[in-house]
Input
Amino acid sequence: MGKRRPSKHLRTPRPLSAGFATDLAAPAGWVVRRVSGAGATKEYRCPGCNRVISPGTAHLVAWRAERSLAGGGPEDRRHWHNSCWQRLGPR
Output
C-alpha cells in the first residue's frame, strides 16, 4: 500500500517561495512577489479592482515589509492583478 496523504486540515501551509519570484522593483516599504500561472492554485480577490483572480492566472502578492519583520502571516498578504498593482499600488 502507498503512503496516505494527511487530511487537508492537517497539512502545513505551502511555503511562500513555491511558485513565487521576488520583485526587486517593489516600492519602498513593500515586499512584492510575482506568482506564475502554474503557481496560482487558489481564487483571490484583487483589492485594486475588487474582481476575482482565477486559479492559473499570473498575478502578484504584496505586503508591507514591517509586517514581515513583525511576524505577519498570510492574512497580511494581498493578491493583485499585475495591471492593477501598476496603476493603483503604493508609490
The radius of gyration is 15 Å.
